[in-house]
Write a structure and sequence with these properties.
mainly alpha, 37% helix, laminin egf-like domain, Laminin N-terminal domain-containing protein, 73 residues
Length: 73
């Protein structure tokens, strides 16, 4: 009786360990994404992101009355 119970717990433990190992191994197999701010040796390099003009083509509304009559929206 004890032999069957011990065998059951050993098999259950091995199955749990195998499941955890399979789950966590997917993270260790991935190659980290290349970071343009670091060279291949891991040293920081000058990193200037691409300029994106978010206001390009948008209408501009301007006036010279800012603050004349208090805050406004």
């Amino acid at each position: 009786m004890y032999f069957l119970l011990a065998t059951f717990f050993v098999v259950l433990s091995l199955r749990i360990c195998h499941t955890w190992a399979a789950y966590f191994s997917q993270f260790s197999l991935r190659e980290p994404e290349h970071d343009p701010c670091y060279d291949n040796a891991g040293r920081p390099v000058r990193c200037v992101p691409d300029f994106i003009n978010a206001a390009f083509g948008k209408p501009v509304i301007a006036s010279d009355t800012c603050g004349q009559f208090g805050p406004s929206r």
